[in-house]
Design goal:
The structure holds 2 protein chains of 2 kinds. Chain A has 10 helices and 5 strands, in the order H-E-E-H-H-E-H-E-E-H-H-H-H-H-H. Chain A is an alpha/beta fold. In chain A, a hairpin with a 5-residue loop joins strand 1 and strand 2. Classes of the chains: A alpha/beta, B alpha/beta.
Chain lengths: 284, 144
C-alpha cells in the first residue's frame, strides 16, 4: 500500500497530525492496530482484507482526545461509527483526519471467507473522509434499500420460548469481561451503568440474572446508534452472537423510524427525537 | 402454581396523568384488582428500561407502564420520547425471548379513572391466566 505509507509520512512529517492510527500485519493472515508517531513507523502500515479492527474506537479514549490532531485509517463501516460520534458531539471534526480506504470486503473473524457484515455494506467507498485511497469499488446495495440480516431472520422465525432458550444458552457463557463494551466505538460513557453500585442496577457476577441484564442494557444503549461494525461480537471470548441483538434494534429503527445510523452527521439519532405520528400500536 | 397464587404487577405511572387517574379511580370508588404495586415517577419519560428488568428480577410477574396521552405531557414531549424508548425496549425483550405479554404499555389520563380500573383488571386477569413468570424468576435461582 504505497500511497497509504506516502500519505502517512506526509502527515507526520508536516506535523499536521500528532498520531496516526492504522494497521500493521500480524502474521500472514492477520492485521493489528499500529500507532504511528514517526516516519519510520509509517513504513509498517498496511491495508488489506484482514484489517478487521474498527480503529475509530481509539478516538473515544481521553489520551487520544487530548491530542491536537489524530489521523485514522478507516473503512466505510468504520467511518459510519465516526459519523455517529460526530452527531453525538463526541469528536471534533477538525481534530480528526480520516484516511478513508475503499474496501470490497474483509474476512470473517475466523479468517475464512467474506465477513457477513460486508454482505449488507453500502459504503464500500468512504462517504466521509479527508482523503480516499484505493481504487473505487462498485456499491452492491442502493443507499435507500432496507437491509436484511440473514441470521436475524432465523431468530425472528423462532417462537418466544425458543428464543428464550437460545439466549439463556448463549448468555450462560458470558464471563462479563466487558470486551464488547471496550471494543465498541460508541460505548463511551465515562462511567458505565454496570460499574455503578449506588444503586446497583446490574448484578456484576457472571450469573444468569446479571448476564441477562447486562446484555439487555448493552444492546439498548446502542439502540438507533449501532452501525453494524461487528466489533463486539468479534472480540467476545465466549463467541456470543451479540450482533443479533444489535441487528434486531437496527431493524426496528429502520422499520419504525426509517433510520439507519452513520450516514449523515447532520441527522438526528432516533432516540434523541420523535415524530408525533410515531407508531404506537403496542400501547393500549 | 399454588391455588392462592396472585400475580404481582409492578406499575410505573407518571405523576401528572395516570397517577391522578388512579387517584380518581380510588375517590370514585371503582373496584380494581389489588395485584398492582404503583410506583410514581415524574413523567413516563423517566421510566428507564432498567426499571422493567429490575422489576422482573425482584419477582414481578408483569410490568404495567402508563403515562399521559400523546399531546398531554406535562413536560410537552416526555411521553413522545418515552414512546420511542419503549418501542426499542419491547423489540429487544421480544428478541431475547422475554414474554412481552407481561410488559404492558398504556396511556391513561387524569380523567380516565374508569379506564385505569378496567386496565388493571384486564391485565391482572391475563397474567392470572399466564401464571407466575417462572422463566425469568429462575434466573435468580441458578447462582454460582
Amino acid at each position: 500500500m504505497q500511497e497509504l505509507v506516502k500519505k502517512a509520512k506526509e502527515l507526520i512529517e508536516s506535523k499536521e497530525v500528532d498520531l496516526l492510527i492504522g494497521y500493521q500485519s500480524d502474521g500472514e493472515k492477520g492485521a493489528k492496530p499500529l500507532f504511528v508517531k514517526n516516519t519510520q513507523q509509517a513504513e509498517k502500515l498496511i491495508f488489506n482484507q484482514y484489517c478487521l479492527n474498527n480503529l475509530v474506537t481509539y478516538l473515544k479514549r481521553p489520551d487520544v482526545k487530548a491530542l491536537k490532531k489524530v489521523a485514522v485509517v478507516a473503512k466505510g463501516c468504520d467511518i459510519r461509527s465516526f459519523v455517529m460520534l460526530l452527531s453525538e458531539n463526541q469528536v471534533s471534526r477538525d481534530a480528526i483526519f480520516i484516511i478513508g480506504m475503499t474496501c470490497d470486503h474483509v474476512v470473517s473473524p475466523d479468517g475464512t471467507g467474506e465477513n457477513e457484515k460486508c454482505t449488507t455494506c453500502k459504503v464500500h467507498n468512504p462517504h466521509l473522509a479527508d482523503v480516499v485511497l484505493g481504487a473505487p469499488v462498485p456499491e452492491k446495495i442502493a443507499k435507500d434499500k432496507p437491509v436484511h440480516y440473514a441470521q436475524l431472520e432465523k431468530l425472528n422465525a423462532m417462537s418466544q420460548e425458543e428464543r428464550w432458550a437460545f439466549w439463556q444458552e448463549e448468555l450462560s457463557r458470558c464471563i462479563r469481561c466487558y470486551a464488547c463494551r471496550q471494543a465498541c466505538p460508541l460505548c463511551y460513557c465515562e462511567r458505565c451503568i454496570v460499574d455503578f453500585n449506588t444503586p446497583q442496577w446490574i448484578d456484576t457476577r457472571s450469573n444468569p440474572r446479571g448476564n441477562f441484564a447486562w446484555n439487555i442494557v448493552r444492546a439498548l444503549h446502542l439502540a438507533g446508534r449501532c452501525i453494524n461494525c461487528g466489533e463486539c461480537e468479534r472480540v467476545c471470548p465466549a463467541n456470543i452472537p451479540l450482533m443479533l441483538l444489535n441487528q434486531s434494534l437496527q431493524e426496528e429503527a429502520q422499520e419504525k423510524f426509517a433510520w439507519e445510523a452513520g450516514y449523515d452527521p447532520e441527522s438526528q439519532p432516533p432516540l434523541t427525537t420523535f415524530r408525533k405520528e410515531d407508531d404506537e400500536d403496542f400501547i393500549r | 402454581m399454588s391455588e392462592n397464587w396472585e400475580p404481582k404487577i409492578i406499575t410505573f405511572v407518571c405523576n401528572w396523568c395516570t397517577y391522578a387517574g388512579a387517584d380518581l379511580a380510588g375517590t370514585s370508588r371503582f373496584k380494581y384488582a389489588s395485584n398492582i404495586r404503583i410506583i410514581k415517577t415524574p413523567c413516563s419519560g423517566r421510566i428507564d428500561p432498567m426499571f422493567i428488568v429490575s422489576a422482573f428480577e425482584k419477582g414481578a410477574d408483569a410490568v404495567l407502564i402508563s403515562g399521559c396521552h400523546p399531546g398531554d405531557c406535562h413536560y410537552n414531549e416526555g411521553n413522545y420520547n418515552a414512546r420511542r424508548k419503549f418501542t426499542m425496549m419491547k423489540r429487544l425483550l421480544d428478541t431475547l425471548g422475554v414474554d412481552t405479554r407481561r410488559v404492558v404499555f398504556a396511556w391513561c389520563s387524569a380523567s380516565e379513572g374508569i379506564k385505569f380500573s378496567r386496565l388493571v383488571n384486564e391485565v391482572t386477569e391475563s397474567i392470572k391466566k399466564l401464571g407466575p413468570y417462572t422463566d425469568y424468576h429462575s434466573l435468580n435461582q441458578e447462582e454460582r
